[in-house]
Amino acid sequence: MTDKTDEKAETIPTYKHQVASHCESGTVRNLLNHGGLEVSEPMIFGIGSGPAFFYLFFVRGPSGFPLCGIRTPPGSILKSIRKRCNIDFFAKKYRSTDQAFERLGELLDKGTPVAVSVDMFYMKYLPSFMHVHAPFHFITLVGRKGDSYVVSDPYFEPLGELSKENLRAAWATHAPLAKDNFLSYVERIPSSINWEKAIVTGLKKTCNGMVLPPGIRSAFGFVGVEGMRMYAREVRKWPDKYSGSMLREGILFNAVAFEDQGTGGGAFRLMYGAFLQEAADIFGSRGLAEMADQMIEHGKAWRDISRLIIKAGKIVPMDDKKYEAWFGVHESELREKLAEISRLFSERADFERRFFTELKKVSAHLKYSKKA
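Now predict its structure.
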């Protein structure tokens, strides 16, 4: 089914659609820009404490492999921006999709852009390779076209069209991490924002989330730097736990999830480096500028690892019937590739421990007014 109609679209004329590096930070930026607040996506991402790492060994993804989270949980950036910048966002998960649709219609009739969290699989305007079940994709609905909705998607250059049927399916999936029937919009933006205070708060929150205090590190070994190390260890074990097409698809899904489907990875680290550059300019901080350069190089190294993961996955045959014979010949080759990925990712974990420990020290010396 295509999400197109022959009727003329009714869109919010003052809304400016912009693509972004990440769906939630891009959606929040677009909503704020529409409300008259010019702010960059990296600034939203940084103040929102976007960078994180969770190796969710207890949650299975679409590939059958454990899920990895390379950013804070869905909705947390919006929540943090609301709190740290004193911006009034309406945000609610409705009990039923019908209730959410009713409220959506009221808001669009008033000319209010509405952010929703959906499953990317049903976003049929996107390229087919992006039709994967990622039930935490943020988009903004900015109008109607017949029985369809006009979509501002941070991952799509033009405005998209989404049928009501597909929106209904995408809006309530009952999947892990999904925010079913979630709806948000800007109610009020203050006349002034204490950007310095918001930046420092975001910096400290990110540092504490990546390098946990010793007392709780053992209990939450799947979080932050310890989670990165756990992931690095598990990479070596993939051929012992999975085989055939599940092994191939699981390896490839890790690379896709790292870079293309909203969880980030190298792209998120590069954006965090851009945030640190902006923060350095605001504070006139040489220390933050140096940290920004380090984070950008780190993001590039992370992306190199993602490419190695893709190469490792592609050598595994798709045909399960051929797997045992293939593995008998190529086992050592596969294990060598995975061992290299494990080693390099362990190095990224070591870097992030040093980096966020140092960033916390730099942040502690930044001076700002504590008045809102």
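The mean pLDDT is 92.
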